[in-house]
Specification:
The protein is globular. It folds into 2 domains: 13-99, Winged helix-like DNA-binding domain superfamily/Winged helix DNA-binding domain (Arc Repressor Mutant, subunit A), CATH 1.10.10.10; 110-346, 3-Layer(aba) Sandwich (Rossmann fold). It has helices at 13-33, 36-39, 46-53, 57-69, 89-94, 104-119, 121-127, 139-147, 149-166, 190-198, 210-222, 260-270, 288-291, 295-303, 313-320; strands at residues 73-78, 81-87, 179-184, 202-208, 229-233, 245-251, 271-281, 323-331, 339-346. The strands form 2 sheets. It has a 7-stranded mixed β-sheet with strand order 5-4-3-6-7-9-8, sandwiched between helices. Strands 1-2 form a two-stranded antiparallel ribbon. The protein is 45% helix and 19% strand.
């Protein structure tokens, strides 16, 4: 018998896929919450795994097969039977706690937060107001996030992505160049740490809420970089940033400021002549396919009244702030939604 693949997708298929997605999400959540990925760092049968963790054997076998279809497990086969299951390379890298790139807690946080927001939509549409628990951006809350989900996302994804961006920028692409960095809204400080580890001539400051930079300071000390990296606690809307920086790195921070033009002028003033500003920020694309990658993640923030600019709008704001030589491109190797990377300079 010959089987033929379907090549023409029904117009309804993307919307059926939405109905399926919660099952896949809950399956991944169950794997993380039950510790199954950690147990499958070495091959096991479904019966062995279920026995060790006191789980139902038939249901465990079915869950493992679903995760195999999601490319998070590999399987070995003997004849027509599955002999063992093991984490795929992706699962080993991101979803096993032994990995330095583990971000399972961050993924679970995003899943539960977005699910909780979705349950509020009908009420919000009738009554207005703000979604909860998205109401408060405070130093204490950001410090908690820096220790967990933001910290995991920075270590797993953003550090490497930031290094990739920096390779496009002279003189940063020279590892021995002497540079002063301001990591603006740097949270746990892992981006500044990665840049300092890659460039022996770099010294820098992580700016964020006072409670948050305490987390960064501990991470910097653990990395052995306290002699080259420091912290500055404050409020981006109201406090000074220092000056004469060669590079200001600003990633997904501008959504939270009260007065974007004023903050951009402050960032411009913090640069030395010829210095470089890098803004990594999600913007709303002009086409449905591209916008669909951004809008679901940022709907809660937009309903809070936070600013998510439209593509090209931030570049215009940078020009108005006095920055020149603006380069913009899309990057998909940052957490969650694709972002626009904007590289701009202060006139020399």
């Amino acid at each position: 018998m010959n089987f033929h693949a379907f090549h023409d997708e029904h117009a309804l298929q993307p919307y059926w896929d939405l109905a399926i997605a919660p099952v896949q999400g809950d399956a991944l959540a169950a794997m993380l919450e039950l510790g199954l990925f950690d147990a499958l760092e070495t091959p096991q049968t479904a019966a062995q795994l279920a026995g060790a963790l006191e789980l139902d054997v038939p249901h465990t076998a079915l869950l493992l097969e679903l995760l195999w279809s999601m490319r998070l497990l590999d399987r070995t086969e003997a004849g027509d039977a599955v002999s063992a299951w093991r984490c795929s390379a992706t699962a080993l890298h991101y979803f096993c706690r032994s990995s330095s790139s583990f971000c399972g807690d961050a993924w679970l946080y995003r899943l539960h937060a977005l699910r909780d927001f979705g349950t509020q939509l009908n009420t919000l549409m009738h009554d207005g107001g703000h979604p909860t628990p998205y109401q408060t951006a405070s130093g204490v809350n950001w410090a908690l996030a820096a220790r967990q989900q933001i910290g995991q996302e920075q270590r797993a994804v953003t550090m490497r992505a930031a290094l990739s961006v920096m390779q496009r920028i002279a003189p940063f692409s020279s590892p021995d160049a002497r540079l002063r960095l301001l990591d603006l809204g740097g949270g746990p400080g892992w981006v500044a740490i990665a840049l300092a580890q890659a460039h022996a001539g770099l010294q820098g400051t992580v700016f964020d809420w006072p409670e948050t930079v305490a987390v960064a300071s501990a991470n910097i000390a653990h990395a052995g970089l306290s002699g080259r990296l420091g912290t500055l606690g404050g409020d981006l809307d109201s406090d000074e940033l220092g000056g004469e920086y060669d590079l200001v790195w600003c990633s997904s921070v501008l959504h939270f400021v009260a007065d974007l033009p004023a903050v951009l002028r402050k960032m411009h003033a913090a640069l030395r002549p010829g210095g470089v500003l890098v803004c990594v920020q999600a913007e709303i694309a002009p086409t449905p396919d591209d916008a669909s990658r951004v809008l679901p993640y940022y709907l809660p923030m937009r309903m809070l009244g936070r600013l998510v600019t439209r593509q090209g709008e931030l570049a215009g704001q940078l020009r108005s702030a006095g920055l020149v030589q603006i380069e913009q491109y899309q990057a998909s190797d940052f957490p969650m939604a694709p972002v626009q990377v904007l590289i701009a300079r202060k006139a020399g």
